[in-house]
């Protein structure tokens, strides 16, 4: 069997992770979640990786959890409770580690992204999609509210947009997903990889240390009130200014030359 995740690292530090189970619409099975989680954790500590692009093979980015796997678990004496708890816990840990990963993570969507697949897109720092891609949290249609996808969705789009997706279960076009802020930009399928690669490469040119500081601060300050957020971010800014890359960046700007990052 092929690996559930394909990995390819470019010379400039862009790591491409590709979901690779198109026959099952790249469903987030236990094995897929474990493989993706492991890849994210390895990339997080790798000095060679600067940016992560998350894509998929086949016509679906990800159709969410593997419903056949879930159905099979119901045959257990506990009706699947232990399996369901493990599945939800491991999926939540993987999604959380995407957000807390020190490297920027970019979703590249060329196909459908539904339920936990939509959650995966919302968990990434940036997201770009082809104009034929579609997004949904359709659990309500099968008696299963998308409560865990709701966590990522509600942290990325306004309440009423999130509730519309969650309550109706309707498919949203790529243009609608861009309009509500679920994705950054829409392009055609032929241009999608070029777009994400160009964005990833631009980010990869920055100081990895600075990116890590900024990403962590961004998500932390969002849950603070205004005064706390400014106090916290001011401390982060001061510490950043005292780093070697902070000094180098300003010096290079003043001297009108490209900076030489040391990631220190």
Could you walk me through the main structural features you see in this protein, from its secondary elements to its overall organization?
With 264 residues, this protein is α/β, with parallel strands linked by helices. The protein has two domains: 5-204, 2-enoyl-CoA Hydratase, Chain A, domain 1 (Alpha-Beta Complex), CATH 3.90.226.10; 208-254, Lyase 2-enoyl-coa Hydratase, Chain  A, domain 2 (Orthogonal Bundle), CATH 1.10.12. The protein is built from eleven helices and ten strands. Strands 1-2-3-5-7-10 form a six-stranded mixed beta sheet, with helices on both faces. Strand 1 (5-9) and strand 2 form a beta hairpin. Helix 9 (208-221) packs antiparallel against helix 10. It is globular. The N and C termini lie far apart (42 Å). May play a role in fatty acid biosynthesis and insulin sensitivity. Belongs to the enoyl-CoA hydratase/isomerase family. It comes from Enterovibrio qingdaonensis. Keywords: Fatty acid metabolism, Lipid metabolism, Lyase, Transit peptide.
């Amino acid at each position: 069997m092929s690996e559930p995740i394909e990995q390819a690292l470019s010379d400039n530090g862009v790591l491409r992770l590709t979901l690779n189970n198109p026959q099952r619409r790249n469903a987030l099975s236990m094995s897929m979640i474990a493989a993706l989680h492991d890849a994210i954790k390895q990339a997080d500590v790798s000095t060679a990786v600067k940016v992560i692009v998350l894509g998929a093979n086949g016509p679906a980015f990800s159709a969410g959890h593997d419903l056949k796997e879930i159905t099979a678990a119901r045959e257990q004496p506990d009706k699947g409770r232990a399996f369901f708890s493990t599945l939800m816990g491991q999926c939540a840990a993987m999604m959380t580690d995407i957000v807390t990963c020190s490297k920027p993570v970019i979703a590249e969507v060329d196909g459908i992204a539904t339920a936990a697949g939509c959650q995966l897109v919302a968990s990434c720092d940036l997201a770009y999609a082809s104009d034929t891609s579609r997004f949904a949290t359709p659990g309500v249609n099968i008696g299963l509210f998308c409560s865990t996808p709701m966590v990522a969705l509600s942290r990325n789009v306004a309440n009423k947009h999130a509730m519309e997706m969650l309550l109706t279960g309707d498919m949203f076009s790529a243009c609608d997903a861009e309009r509500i802020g679920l994705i950054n930009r829409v392009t055609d399928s032929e241009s999608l990889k070029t777009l994400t690669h160009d964005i990833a490469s631009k980010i990869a040119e920055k100081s990895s240390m600075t990116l890590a500081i900024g990403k962590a601060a961004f998500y932390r300050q969002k849950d603070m009130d205004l005064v706390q957020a400014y106090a916290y971010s001011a401390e982060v800014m001061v510490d950043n200014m005292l780093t070697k890359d902070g000094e180098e960046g300003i010096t290079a700007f003043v001297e009108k030359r490209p900076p030489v990052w040391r990631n220190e």
